[in-house]
Amino acid sequence: MSAPLAPAPVRPDWIAVDWGTSRLRAWALDAEGGIAAEASSDAGMSRMEPGGFEAALLALIGDWLPPGRVTPVLACGMVGSRQGWVQAPYRAVPCTPLVAGSFAEAPVQDPRLAVHILPGLSQPVPADVMRGEETQIAGFLAGTPDFDGVLCLPGTHTKWVRISAGEVVSFQTFMTGELFALLANQSVLRHSVKTAGWSDDAFAMAVDDALSRPDRLAARLFALRAEGLLDDLPPETARARLSGALIGAELAAAKPYWLGQEIVIIGAEEVSEAYAAALTRQGLAPQWVSGDTAALAGLAAARGLLRQGK
Q1: Are 76 and 19 a contacting pair, CB within 8 Å?
Q2: How would DSSP label each residue in 194-254?
Q3: Domain-by-domain residue ranges, the chain?
Q4: pLDDT per residue rounded down to tens, the chain (310 residues)
Q5: CB 302 within 8 A of CB 33
Q6: Bond prior to 126 in cis (omega within 30° of 0)
Q7: Do domains 14-131 and 174-290 have the same CATH topology?
Q8: Pick from 304, 295, 266, 267: which is nearest to 33 by CA?
Q9: CATH ID of 174-290, from 3.40.50.880, 1.10.238.20, 3.30.420.310, 3.40.50.300
Q10: Long-range contacts of 138-141 (CB under 8 A, 24+ apart)
Q11: What superfamily would CATH give domain 14-131?
């Protein structure tokens, strides 16, 4: 019996990289934009040491790089921050999410690599910044160029973004995801909040309560602990109420962005579903786009600019 054939080596036309705080993800793309392979690791920015970026990237994609040829790599996210591989300076809004000639080239030793890092966006007043989300926005607009409305990009630091005429007009960031993680894992609520499980009714009640009385947020949060001690509040109910209280308070503060607007949510499915449920209760009908899909489309748009030599 003959031995099974070894899989053909991956030889991409270019490589897309989304390098965030906690994860490093890469896609090998062919000349037509098809995904030939994908890979990820936990070598996010929070784990990186200065000088370790090229090694971390090669550990993930080294087998995709043919000898004797330079493979372009387009990267977005925190890899372009001040603490990243090389700083890609922010571009101030209002502006398009991507523009020719703004990519930073990272220094490399491996002759098979040419790494270009996309810049983030900044807003002087009120002060705000984003890195990575601008690429998702560019990817969304590549498929919906006439969109005029608001994008919600939920995550550790949720962004609300006004879009008009293909430009990011303004945006605002909320640390809702990070607050949830800190409260659920490091505060007194860690004794009351389960890491899994959910209650749609408890979430909806907490959203409504926080929207109507955002000034009571801190008191409502401690009530979760008290109800767990006195009334045996189920931990999955406490988790849903914690999420609902924080998202409800965010919606109360972000109302100028979403009230009466067309809303598209771009992000991971689970957290996007929570935001969609909260917005639907306000009479809206938000659409959803996968964050990975949008990021890859944005990196493809950046590759197009680079290929044109702009």
Answers
A1: yes
A2: -SS---HHHHHHHHHHHHH-GGGHHHHHHHHHHHHHHH---HHHHHHHHHHHHHHHHHHHT
A3: 14-131, 174-290
A4: 555 544 667 889 999 999 988 889 999 999 888 999 999 999 988 888 888 999 999 999 999 999 999 999 999 999 999 999 999 999 999 999 999 889 999 999 999 999 999 999 999 999 999 999 999 999 999 999 999 999 999 999 999 999 999 999 999 999 999 999 999 999 999 999 977 889 999 999 999 999 999 999 999 999 999 999 999 999 999 999 999 999 999 999 999 999 999 999 999 999 999 999 999 999 999 999 999 999 999 999 999 988 876 4
A5: no
A6: yes
A7: yes
A8: 304
A9: 3.30.420.310
A10: 138/96, 138/97, 138/98, 138/297, 138/298, 138/301, 138/302, 139/293, 139/294, 139/295, 139/296, 139/297, 139/298, 139/299, 139/300, 139/301, 140/264, 140/266, 140/289, 140/294, 140/297, 140/298, 141/97, 141/166
A11: 2-keto-3-deoxy-galactonokinase, substrate binding domain (3.30.420.300)
> Token match 């005429």: residue?
165
Both structure tokens of 250: 């965010």
Length of the chain, please? Answer: 310
